Amino acid sequence: MARGAQLADTADQISVGEWFSAWFATRRYKVAPSTLGSNLSLYRLYFVELEDILLSQLSPGLIKDWLAMVEHRCDEQQPGRGQPHTVRHCHALLSAALRDAVDHELLDQSPMARVPKPRVPPARPKYMALDDVRRLLRAVEESGDPRALAVELMARLGLRRNEALGLVWDDVDLDRRIVHIRSQISRVPDPATPGSTTLQRRELKTMTSRRELRLTDELATRLRRHAASLPDRPLLISIRGGRPVDPDAFTRWLVRIGRSIGVDVSPHRLRHSAATLMLNRGASIEAVAKVLGHGDVRVTAVYAKVLDETSAAAVEMLGNAFDEADTKFE
Fold this sequence. Notes:
Elements: H1 2-9, H2 16-27, H3 33-46, H4 60-77, H5 84-103, H6 130-143, H7 148-157, H8 161-165, E1 172-173, E2 178-181, E3 183-189, E4 197-203, E5 211-214, H9 217-229, H10 247-260, H11 267-280, H12 285-292, H13 297-305, H14 308-327
Antiparallel strand pairs: 1-2, 2-5, 3-4
Helix pairs in contact: 3-5, 4-5, 6-7, 7-11, 12-13
């Protein structure tokens, strides 16, 4: 707190950049390292225009102009889409820093009180139509890339990207047509080389993520063919003589394949698609939660919220039930 007292002695001379420097120095004791890292990254990318402005001169109008500039920059980076959440995060980070400036008596009140939160448009559906999933599966298969199997497992079983890439043959029982989901590929610090990272197969974080899934006949046949072609490799999906696939490189490859056929795809969108397809075909939300490895069905419910088709199907099923009942009394 001594640092805050020193700053308070010269409040009218403190710039936004100087205050953030002092604020981040103490924030590391209050938030998780990942949160602090995200805050610092956001600050470096978007706050440079504010750094030389004195705290006492930071007005609501100036902040609104700055947020408009951030929004414009995001629109230039992603034309037609932008990053509305980035603008919201910038607003939240500046609000938090200025609240602490008030607590340290550097400001009488925060100018953010007159700056409304940027609105975030409703989320677009994050699932793919069944035809688009089929087109994607054909495209990755035709590519001849060994990573195509991971895409098929994600689409057919709703696996997370790192779960699919972490599967080994010991996880698969082809006779019983069962696959055990119990590990994932992760990038971790390399103890042999300080400052670098390496890929490592690790156990899943939660018990609910560990699960058994039944393979369809088609998928089991696909895996038998794959096993016959790679008899000496422990990982189901590997590159360059059995090395694990980097998850981020996999995502870039998948997005590139999707763009080549006009399909907007990501690992999460593929998993979301699997969930919504199950729900649309009549699977209960509890069953879908077990397939996805969710410990709380409220997490799974997010997948259903964007689906008008799901609620329509439920109403239709209810109507059919009444119609069937009525015919018994005719």
